[in-house]
Amino acid sequence: MWGSSESAPRVRLEGEGEGWRIVLEGDWRSGPLPSAREVLREWEDAPPSGAVAVEIFVKSWDSRLAAFLLRMREILAEMGVPLAFSRLPAGLGRLLALAGKNKKGEGKEIASDSAQHSASAASVLREWLSFVGELALGILHFLRKRMALGDFGTTLRQCGIESLPTVALVSFLTGTILGFIGAVQLAVFGAAIYVADLVAVAMAREMAPLMTAIVLTGRTGAAFSATLGSMRTGGEIDVLTTFGISPVPFLAVPRILALGLMAPLLCVFSVFVGIAGGMVVVLPMFHISAAQYINRTVSAVGVSAFCFGIGKSTIFALLIGTIACHSGMCCERSAAGVGRATTRAVVCSITALVVADAVCTVLANRLHI
For the chain: N or C, fewer Cβ within 10 A? Predict the structure, then answer.
């Protein structure tokens, strides 16, 4: 028997022949821990002939108990003796199963990139649909206020306020480019004043949602994927799973909802900045007054154009957040895997944005929006 104090970890070997069992008792969160090799030393020369059962009656435990059991299982496996667990405390079974799964998969992780490429389309689709289903359930939990609003507020700030400078710069330059190209072409027909219409409509319906989404893809989507990928590589996501916390509602839902809420606001901001950029170019070139430019802008852009752009930006944000979070939470467990997941998230997001933009534009034309 190892350990004698009531409050210290204790290990007993009981039985003989094929009926051996290992009994664990005491408090496994305090005091010195036994060495698995020392406890099993008497079996080194004459190991049990049959399976050994482990019965656990501990008062309290932490991850050190799981580490001891795993080490003991490795030593007995070297002796050719199988180990059977019984009377496991709540949570310990999941922790041992997860550790065993990761141990078996170590050799496969190195070649997981080629395995991903050879995966069938059906399995990829099934994995994606499973993630979307968990996401939908997670959103319902979030709406029932089962999430930490503090984390949600932090994500809102990262998605919105911290993205303003980049969105402002890109939108302003986009507006100036549209204004300059439109002014040069329309001046040939003596219709330079209609540059205001062109810039306003293009920014409200197409450029502002798309440019905002591209900025969010490169800045926020990549950050989501890298953060979640690092958490998966470091085992933090596995820890959440072990303690019965679903990682999708806890990690992905606040990020996706924050992106979906801030993208429309950034889109509206982008529209006004882009219109200002076009004004800066057109006014000095053709000596048009600011009042004329603003009047043409107001008459050209209606509520429907603004709503259309805001709706597109919301769809784009949900696509970016979903793709980025899925890519990060399903990446390989290595530093190189995190990099590949981030690259994949950006490339897939931009491709999805272009496709979604084309679909929205065609539908809007068909519906006369």
Answer: N
